[in-house]
Design brief:
The complex is a heterodimer of chains A (about 110) and B (about 110). Chain A is built from no helices and eleven strands. Chain A has strands at about 5, 10-15, 20-25, 30-35, 45-50, 50-55, 60-65, 70-75, 85-90, 100, 105-110. In chain A, strands 2, 4, 5, 9, 10 and 11 form a six-stranded mixed β-sheet that branches. A five-stranded antiparallel β-sheet of chain A has the order 1-3-8-7-6, with no helix packed on it. Chain B has about 110 residues and is an all-beta fold. In chain B, the strands form two sheets. In chain B, strands 2, 4, 5, 6, 9, 10 and 11 form a seven-stranded mixed β-sheet that branches. A four-stranded antiparallel β-sheet of chain B has the order 1-3-8-7, with no helix packed on it. In chain B, strand 7 (about 65-70) and strand 8 form a beta hairpin. The mean pLDDT of chain B is about 95. Classes of the chains: A mainly beta (about 110), B mainly beta (about 110). The interface of A and B includes residues 97, 103 and 105 of A.
Amino acid sequence: KNEVEQSPQNLTAQEGEFITINCSYSVGISALHWLQQHPGGGIVSLFMLSSGKKKHGRLIATINIQEKHSSLHITASHPRDSAVYICAVQPFYGGSQGNLIFGKGTKLSVKP
Amino acid sequence: KAGVTQTPRYLIKTRGQQVTLSCSPISGHRSVSWYQQTPGQGLQFLFEYFSETQRNKGNFPGRFSGRQFSNSRSEMNVSTLELGDSALYLCASSRFLDSTDTQYFGPGTRLTVL
């Protein structure tokens, strides 16, 4: 079993829809990251969470440490949101920024 | 401010050869991490450097090595290439090792091993 599980693997939505991507993990963590990867490979860090909720524009990320679960929400989705969204956790034993365990990613396609 | 740069962007090698990839972090960033991305395994952590010292290493064989220079630029080397080493190699930089610091990723080097 992977230490970081994401669902769904693939998601197709119509423009304007509310989107939720889920991430569950099995290890103790010091932080959880949500990343966005566009075709061609470039990765952008969207959020880093250790508790609660963060919002940036139309993106909202939440984490429940007790349940070892995080969600990424996109409100009013747009075709430019089409990308792969990757959840990554920073385990306690790693103790540093770069030592991350990654989920397999959720491929989102938003149709106009 | 210039972003993280990686060179070369594309590389084709044959089995048994060795390869060196380079990563220049954002100016002022002292931490550099390397990752391998393949269709089968996804993203995996290779190693992390801070102030010229390797701080963490992922679960990869000794054929994978790296270093960081005094100007924070980093290189990774893969010796005796295997077909399975074909991947996108990404580096990321941050100011510190602090878990609250944002990482900035480079565009990656796509390595193909024939």
